[in-house]
Structure formats: structure tokens, C-alpha cells
Task: structure prediction
Amino acid sequence: MHRRGVGAGAIAKKKLAEAKYKERGTVLAEDQIVQMSKQLETFKSNLEEFASKHKQEIRKNPQFRVQFQEMCATIGVDPLASGKGFWSEMLGVGDFYYELGVQIIEVCLALKHRNGGLITLDELHQRVLKGRGKYAQDVSQDDLVRAIKKLKVMGNGFGMIPVGGSYLVQSVPAELNMDHTVVLQLAEKKGFVTVSEIKDSLKWEKERACHVLDHLLKEGLAWLDSQAAGEAQYWLPALFSELTSRDITPEEANQMTP
Amino acid sequence: MSFEWPWQYNFPPFFTLQPNVDTRQKQLAAWCSMVLSYCRHHKLYTLDVMEAQESPVFNNKKLERKLSMEAIQVVFEELRKKGNLEWLDKNKSRCLVMWRRPEEWGKLIYQWVSKNGMSNSVFTLYELSNGDDTEAEEFHGLEEWMLLRSLQALQADGKAEIITMDDGKGVKFF
Result:
């Protein structure tokens, strides 16, 4: 055998080896594909089973919904993010929150002329439950918060202001800055606030306090009470607790979308 | 059955004329609605402004809030513009409150007449407003000036004719 040089035989042998490797590669890929395809089938049917098993639960049980959402968050999935796909189509999670969003908008619209577009989460919750009737699925405050967040993302002018351990839901894009928010929080305790209270609690100048209160009056969020003993009181209909015991008037009901 | 006050009645600022124009509009609309409902409930057809100030409608004793005279006048003017109020004197001290307009009363009366097959009958005004037959009807107790206006509305519609009788007025229905 020659030591040096690659003869035709060697080349041919090499080529044959390469061809054989290539073939093997293709064969492997095919194998994998068949495997993967089988796995996909199993995965798909597992998902369908999951969906059918839990769809009811998701619609019926607020506690389950919270846990489901938390689980999704852990694995980096937002079931409310995409309109199409497994989550919304098969599980109907998107539908549930979409419908809830519509209900929330209805309630806020009906009461807007009363409270200027500001409502406590409690009152919203009560009214949404009432509107759903006896036989509808239960809805928790957590559900409302998620639906509102979704509405916010969709640019519906919704916002949530933390007050006294809960939230005020803002449904009208009134311009509320930090100063306004802080005064709203102060008003939460009694449903009204005065210039003196603002000055004492927040250590503001009188002008700043008046400026904020004027803005709230202008936005229709506050009403003036000049017959209060001592100094004028600024009341927020949204925080007026007695509202929650009153039904929506027929005029207000007309505001609701059919 | 006692009158059910709307939520605004217990909301202290409701008794202060609101400085914000939009809020004031809502406030006045609510006042008008409340005053009319109250008068309707108690079958009040006239109001004396001085007395009104002290009536529960404008004076919520429990809340220690009352509508000022100026504000009451604003509410009354609002009612007048809507056609629910008429001043009886130039000084605006007394007014008629029409929580139901004459045409609406006329319709009710005519419905009662038709329902009981009394077309072509003649009634005295007194019979209509105070007769035993009408006791169950809403227009029972209707004050004469209002009854007359209602019948005038029906007359204009060709559904009745007001006639003068010996001791007063009467009406014939068609």
C-alpha cells in the first residue's frame, strides 16, 4: 500500500462514509419527528383533558381562579394576555374576565353621574354580584381587580387608587395626580375632608389644599357642604356609605348597556 | 306608606347649592324629582314658599341641613321651566305644583270613563273628584283647578266638553 497520497479508493471510501453518516442523520431526524409527533399528540390530549376538567372549576370557583392565576404566573404564562389560543379558547379564562370587564363598565357608567366616576371596590363588588343574579358564578374582589387591570391595559380610562386597605376604582380618566390621590385617601375615613384636616395631616399650605379640593369639585368627584359646623366640608359621593344600600334608580338603569 | 327619601336626602352637600356647574345641574335635577315625588306622595297641589322652608322636603332636621331661601327659589324656577310649577302671585310666595301634567290627568280620567262604559255620560266636577265611584282612582281628591285644566286638555282633544250647570261646572265625555 502506498504510504502517501490519497488514492481514488480512499476518496471513494470517504465519500461512502460521509454518505452513510448523512443517511444516519436523516434517519435519526425522522425518528425524532415521529417521536415528537407522538409526544405532541399526548400533550394535546392532556391539555384538552385539563381544559375540560378545569374549565368548569375556573368559571365557578373564585378561589380556584386565584390559584390558577398564581400557577400560571409561576410558569410565566398570562392567560389573559392573548385573545386567541389555548387559554382563552379552551379554558375560556379570557371570556370570563372579558365578560366581567363589560359588567364592571356597565356599573361604573350607571353610577358615574352620582360619583363622578369614582367608586369603592366594595360597592363595585356588591353591585356586580347583584347584577349577576342568584344563579350566576361567584365573583371575588380578586377577579374584579384582574378584570380592571385588563381594562386598564386596553386603555379604557380605568385606574385603581389604594385607599384604606382597599381600592377606589376610577372609571373616568379624570386627571388625578399624587396630591389628589392623597387627599382621597384622607377622605376615605369619614367620606369627607376639610381644609384644616388636610393642613394638619399632610402639613400643606392652605393654597395647596384648596387647589386640590377645587380640582375634585371640578371633576365632579366632590360636593361642597357649606352648612357644616366650623368650616366647609368636601364630601365624595363615591365614599358615601349609604349609597351602597340604595338601589340604582330607573334613570341610572337606562345608562346601562343592554 | 311613608315617603322613601332618595339617597341624596341624607347627603349633607345636597342642601348646598353646588358651585360646580355640572354638579349643580345634577343636583337641581334631583331636587326637582324629589319635590315632585314628595308632593305626589302627599297629594300636595300647592306650596307656600315660607312654609316650604320648614317642611321636611327642604329641611332635614336630623341631618341639620336645610336648603336656603335662595336655593329653594332656584329649585322652583327649575320646576317652572320644566312645566311642573306655576306661580299664583307676582311675589312668588305661593305656587301650583303639577307633579302630573293636566294632559296626563286627563288621560287617566278618560281611561276610567271608557273602562266603565260611561261615554256620553255627564258628571259634575264634584262627582269626579269626590264621588264614591271614583274613590279608588288616583284622581280622587284632585283639586278643582287641576281637574278643570285636565278636562280642558281632554276638551281640546275632542274627548270631552265642559258644560255649565246650575250650581257649577260639569263635563260630558264622548
Observations:
- The radius of gyration of chain A is 31 Å.
- Chain A is about 60% helix and 10% strand.
- Chain A has two domains: 48-172, 174-246.
- The CA atoms of residues 123 and 242 of chain A lie 10 Å apart.
